[in-house]
Each structure stands twice: as C-alpha cells, then as structure tokens.
Amino acid sequence: MKKNIECNIIKDLAEPFSKNAINDKTKDFINEHLTKCKECKKYYDNIKSECNMTEKDKDTIIINHFKKVNNHIKVLKIILIFILIFIISFCFFCIIKNYKFTNILDKTYNKINEIKELDNYTLSAKTIYKDLKNNNNREYESIYYYKDGKYKIESTDNIQFCEDNSFDSIQIYKNLHTIEYNHKDFIENKKGDIINIFSCYILNYKDLKNTIYSLGFNIREDRYNGIDCYVIRTGNNEDYRDIWIDKSNFITIRSVNECKNDFYCEEIYTFIENNVKNDDISTKIIEENEYKNYTKIYNNINTSEEMKNIYKLY
User: Fold this and answer.
1) Are 158 and 171 in contact (CB under 8 A)?
2) Domain spans of the chain?
3) What is the dihedral of CA 194, 199, 201, 205, to 10 degrees?
4) Tens of pLDDT along 122-171?
C-alpha cells in the first residue's frame, strides 16, 4: 500500500522532473525510487521521450496525420465520384429507355387513331390458346369487315351485321340455325371501336409512359413472319405478355401471353386497307338457300344502366 502511494507521488512529479522544476532533494528521492521501481522507470522514460521530441518530430507526426486524413478524403472522393457516375449513368439509361418506349407508344397510338378514321378495311384476329395444365388446345379466328360505317363480323359459327351509331344488329348462329334481329336501347358500336380489339394493350400502356412504371417494360427488336418488329414485354420469362408492333407502320400484329406450366395464348392480327367490297358487308346473304330454313328471332333488348356504363368503357 505504501509503495503504491509512493509510485503515485513519483508519477505526479514526472512532469516537473522532466522540466527540471524541482529541488535537488526531491530529484534525488525520485532517482532513488526509479532505481528500485521498473514501472515508474518506464513511465518516466516515456515522459522523457515525449519531452525530448523535437519540433520537427512533432511536425512530422502532424503531417503524417494529415496525410492519413487526406488519403481517406481521396478514397471518399473516388467513392463519391463512382456513385455519381452510377447515378448519372442510371438516369441516362432511364431517360433513353423511356424515350424509346414513349416514342414507340406515341407512334403506335397515333396510328391507331389514324386507322379508326378509315372507311374501308379488314381486320382478322386469330387466337391460339393452349391449356398447359390439362393439355387442351383450341384455335379460332374472327374477321372484321368494315366499309362506310357498316360491319360484318365473321367467325367459325357466327356472322354479325351492324352499323356505326345504330341500335340494331343481326346475328346469325350457324350451329343453332337461328337468325336474331336485335334492337337495343343503346348504341353499342361507334366508328373505330373494333380497332380496340388489337390496340387495347397499347392504350393501357400509354397511361404508364413517363412514369416509373415504364421502367418495368422491356423493349427489344425481333422478327415475326419476315416482319421487323418492336416487342414490348411486361413480366418475366415465366409469366409475361409480349406486344409485337410492325416497325414499318406501327400496327400491332401479334400478342403473346404465357404463364409457364399454366397457359399460352397467342393472338395474330392482320390489317388490310381498302379491300372490302359492298358484297362483303351486305345482309343479302341471309336470303341465300343456306339460311332460308333458319329460325328468325326478333329481340328488343333493354340494358341496365350499369351494363350501359360498362359498354361505354370500351
């Protein structure tokens, strides 16, 4: 206990001892203690080393310290530069991608509006559906003839006649051997509505351009039946939808929707302008022998306001 007290006193006197600020008797007492105590001797040697350090040595330590700080700053600057380059590159990539996406959508959308104003065209829509779970496949096709406000829609078992802004339509059901003359209390078809059959996805995508959601679309260039196309994909390799757009005229020619191990649905569109004749849309075929024995049904169809509002959406 006495030794510890003595050591503490000796250590307290280390600084004045190093500066020669004590009397001779105290100095002799300290020297005598240091010959006996290794711990205090080591402590005093360290104090002496610090006191004997030259200004140059002190400057060197300070300089080395600043060099380390400067090196850290340089490393930090390099990291920040790389982060900045990455952010700029990513933003540039997003701008380029969004510009391409927007450019394709705008041109396709404008083409849709242009087609809707045409007075003579044929649109065929072929659907190939595969139920991958139950190994059940089916295929069907509808052909839409349009000329001067009149339609004929022809599929495997049905033929429909209607006109723009009309309440009336005629439906021929070949499998049922019936002809229905329908009068509705609302206008179902307006000019250009049938074009929405192969343009609905583009119309939906248009609302997403210039938003963060547009980054989720993948755009590539590919060929289908010898036609160079833009392909807009949503989803991933296992669950996706591809919209194929003809690069030469920005008309949608194909849609593929697949969910791996579940289903595969492909729709193929063919659009031809100025090829419909009056006979193609004439209701006179009802008078042909093939349909003379068909049962004729006359319907007055009253539709709820809810259903009318739904029709207005399309």
Assistant:
1) yes
2) 2-52, 110-149+191-281
3) -130
4) 999 999 999 988 889 999 999 999 999 999 999 988 999 999 999 999 99
